[in-house]
Amino acid sequence: MAPAQNLISSKHVAVIGAGASGLIAARELHREGHTVVVFEREKQVGGLWIYSPKSESDPLGLDPTRPIVHSSVYESLRTNLPRECMGFRDFPFVPCVDDFSRDSRRYPSHREVLAYLQDFAREFKIEKMVRFETEVVRVEPVDGKWRVRSKNSDDLSEYEIFDAVVVCSGHYTEPYVAHIPGIKSWPGKQIHSHNYRVPGPFKNEVVVVIGNFASGADISRDVAKVAKEVHVASRGSEASTYEKLSVPTNNLWIHSEIETACDDGSIVFKNGKAVRADTVVYCTGYKYKFPFLETNGYMSIDDNRVEPLYKHVFPPALAPGLSFVGLPGMGIQFVMFEIQSKWVAAVLSGRVTLPAPEKMMEDLIASYAMLEALGIPKRYTHKLGKIQSNYLEWVAEECGCQPVEPWRTQQVDRGYGRLGSNPENYRDEWDDDNLIKEAYEDFASKKLISFLPSYFPKSGR
Ligand code: FAD
């Protein structure tokens, strides 16, 4: 940890967004003694986890003027991480066994995550810091401070000055649509997973789903319940891949990548197979976008790399007044938000100091060079994958908080392993009961639960 040189001071901080990252940022900033205003354009906390049956008018999300629907959650969505490793560290995401309206499964539905975040906001009295239905439309540096312009539901806008702004606006709303050769003249329907809600519209269709990670695996199986055929294009698979799955509905094929789309309606895969498809569903991820941010050209997004951003949190020349919580995707999310928020709060109070801007830039340039040397494309800069635990260890040490419990990362690794090997049932069949037990014992030893449950969630095996 960098030793503090300054006196601890309280700052006036704007947090943009009241999803998981904004809620924990608000709590950590408040705990550190800062005054906090959270701006949230929705009517409630929860961000992405607020399911809406509505989707956007442009199914691919290409029209920049389209009205935005924030959430990308589909009706059948269950978490892709076990609940024990997912929750904030001092507010475990354990089942509410006395409340039958709640979902006690180890991988619960999106509604349970929303309920958990609402519980968290209530427990730590965060809602009183939130201005609901208030959208931040511009953030800019002015004389060493930050000017924030917001607009409420009556369209009334106002400017306010803050010492610092923490951006927690999420990054699963702006679709990334993979390019398919020939797609311009392909006559079928196209939709991005951001706008997928229920399988009904795909009844009796032949559907091609691009992507085979969490959303692709889920959506292809959801659609297969009603579609005639579902063909999944899987980039990670060898070119010759062609496999018919007998489960769950005997109408699902896994292929390699798409070679081309043709004007007769067919989609040709790299394995040489061709299908006449009605719809293509892109489960190809999202793009970072901060339309409210004006940094006079200092920051930019190039090939989905938000730059320059020291350790994915601080833009060197604008730090610590501007920071970002939640940018790296995949792996443990809520705990990462928590540790990043503790770092931001401690830096703003002066308890922890950042290196000089030139040093942060040197570090960044070295990390970009390292990615290039490893052949990792720019667009994966914020995908930490296997190095997430090293990253979290570094940030935790920097701000003097406990390192992440090893059982959490082990649960994530085992869970992703099951997702790859058993996408149908990875949420209900597991073989890491020892890690569940370890998690609950850890919660009990920290007095986060009042008693050890007499049973742990049971595998459906
Ligand atoms: P969000 O939840 O998106 O919240 C951002 C908030 O900012 C929103 O409330 C939005 O309204 C608000 N906002 C945005 N712009 C403005 C503005 N200009 N002014 C005011 N308010 C604004 N993670 C897991 O840990 N487990 C899972 O199982 C899991 N499943 C996922 C499934 C899907 C389909 C997706 C897309 C992601 C999943 N994730 C999962 C990752 C998930 O995104 C994070 O866990 C987390 O919920 C993101 O929180 P966030 O606060 O960063 O963003």
TrEMBL record:
Keywords: FAD, Flavoprotein, Monooxygenase, NADP, Oxidoreductase. SUPFAM superfamilies: FAD/NAD(P)-binding domain. Its cofactor is FAD. The keyword Cell membrane does not apply. Its EC number is 1.-.-.-. It is an enzyme of class 1 (oxidoreductase). InterPro entries: FAD/NAD-bd_sf, Flavin_mOase, Flavin_mOase-like, FMO-like. The keyword Flavoprotein applies. Belongs to the FMO family. PANTHER family: DIMETHYLANILINE MONOOXYGENASE (PTHR23023). This is Flavin-containing monooxygenase. The gene is A09p018280.1_BraROA.
